[in-house]
Amino acid sequence: MNQEILDVLIVGAGPGGIATAVECEIAGVKKALLCEKTESHSGMLEKFYKAGKRIDKDYKKQVVELKGHIPFKDSFKEETLENFTNLLKEHRITPSYKTDIESVKKEGELFKITTTSNTTYHAKFVVVAIGKMGQPNRPTYKIPVALSKQVVFSINDCKENEKTLVIGGGNSAVEYAIALCKTTP
């Protein structure tokens, strides 16, 4: 068990996790840990994007106004990966690779985070930035017919001024919520 209390533990070293770690470092957060279950950062980009694949800042015309200190522009896979590698080096962030998070539980004022190898961390805050390449996690159960016309899995299917509930805590859910705030009460 790790006895040190972290200020922030970040789960996932993809674009969202790296951005969170960099923002923590810039803000002076001293005890932040970036955990990644694979052997390198940006595993989804590395694994699923072909060499030379273009990566657009705005996906399917969903314009997201970026806040913070992380520059992101249209580029290609290799340039994007190099940019994230350089950000980690520049901000002296060393991710804890091969650290697969098994559970996160609130215990009093802290979170208890346990890995699959039974290492335990305690943190004041936890940021889950695991993403899934912008694909929603669809429920495994059948959606009742009465509700099926009200359930959408893409922001493109939402109408202006329509009451909307975004379910999820991944990068896509957050991006959708931000975009919807501009057109929906």
UniProtKB/TrEMBL annotation:
Bilayer-crossing regions: none
Keyword Oxidoreductase included in the entry's annotation: yes
Keyword Magnesium on entry: no
InterPro entries according to UniProt: Auxin_biosynth/cation_transpt (IPR050982), FAD/NAD-bd_sf (IPR036188)
One example GO MF annotation: monooxygenase activity
Keywords: Oxidoreductase
Pfam families cross-referenced by the UniProt entry: Pyr_redox_3
PANTHER family assigned: FLAVIN-BINDING MONOOXYGENASE-LIKE PROTEIN (AFU_ORTHOLOGUE AFUA_4G09220), FLAVIN-CONTAINING MONOOXYGENASE
Protein name: NAD(P)/FAD-dependent oxidoreductase
Organism of origin: Helicobacter pylori (Campylobacter pylori)
Classification of source organism: Bacteria, Pseudomonadati, Campylobacterota, Epsilonproteobacteria, Campylobacterales
